[in-house]
Design goal:
Elements: H1 3-22, H2 25-35, H3 50-57, H4 64-92
Helix pairs in contact: 1-2
Length: 93
């Protein structure tokens, strides 16, 4: 799946699952979280061997292990970030 499609899929899932609680922010957070498994493509700058890059890209970040164990800390971090951004926006208005 290309980056655009992966980001859009995350945005759609965020909108469908969390619109009631987050409103339009669900699209933003869903898109960002949808792109996280492909963040390992930044290793292209470090690894010059295409076969090694494919092993890195389809490795840890695309595993169920990563999704299961990273969902809790990621959810907590996004909750705190969203709470702070909402609080700052409410203070300015």
């Amino acid at each position: 799946m290309d980056l655009v499609t992966q980001g859009l899929l995350g945005a759609v899932v965020g909108q469908a699952g969390f619109q009631r609680h987050l409103g339009r922010r669900a699209i933003l957070w869903g898109g960002i979280v949808g792109l996280l498994p492909d963040a390992d493509v930044l290793a292209v700058k470090v690894v010059s061997n295409p076969m090694a890059m494919e092993l890195i890209h389809r490795g840890l970040t695309h595993s169920v292990f990563f999704a299961f164990f990273m969902s809790i800390p990621l959810g907590i971090a996004l909750h705190h970030i969203d709470h702070r951004l909402t609080k700052q926006r409410d203070v300015r208005v």
